[in-house]
Amino acid sequence: MPAKNTDDGIRAVKGAQVIEPDSVRRYLNDKFGDDLRAVRSAMQKLAKAYKHSELAHDAYPLYEQFRPAIQRARGMGSQGRTGPGPDREAGQEEAE
What pTM was computed for the model? Predict the structure, then answer.
């Protein structure tokens, strides 16, 4: 998600438009539902385990582990429910 520094702090942006934090909260709550608190906690713990430069490099692949499974033909922006998935708990690594 693109972001920029504003007088009010870091804000998500879409093009040149700053996205209001309440809108982001509603979106995340809609997508993660009851899993939002657990997913947020897991992502914060995971982020703290990385150096800034490492996180900048690995952030998108990490996000891909949390995003919903959507058929490729439907593409980005398709509706889906996000969360840690039925086979793993938030904040726990998958068995290899």
Answer: 0.53
* d(C-alpha 46, C-alpha 49), whole Å: 5
* pLDDT tens column, 43-63: 889 889 989 888 888 888 887
The backbone torsions φ and ψ at residue 29, rounded to the nearest 5 degrees and listed phi first, read -65, -40
b (16+ CB within 10 A) / e for 56-73: eeeeeeeeeebeeeeeee
Q: What is the CA radius of gyration of the chain?
A: 15
Q: What is the pLDDT of residues 1-11, one digit of tens each?
A: 788 999 999 89
Q: Which helix (H) or strand (E) holds 5?
A: strand 3-6
CA within 13 Å, CB half, 24? 12
Cα–Cα distance for residue pair 74/37, rounded to 1 Å = 28
Residue 91 corresponds to which tokens in the numbers above? 């904040």
Q: Which residues have C-beta within 8 Å of that of residue 92, sequence separation ≥ 6?
A: 42
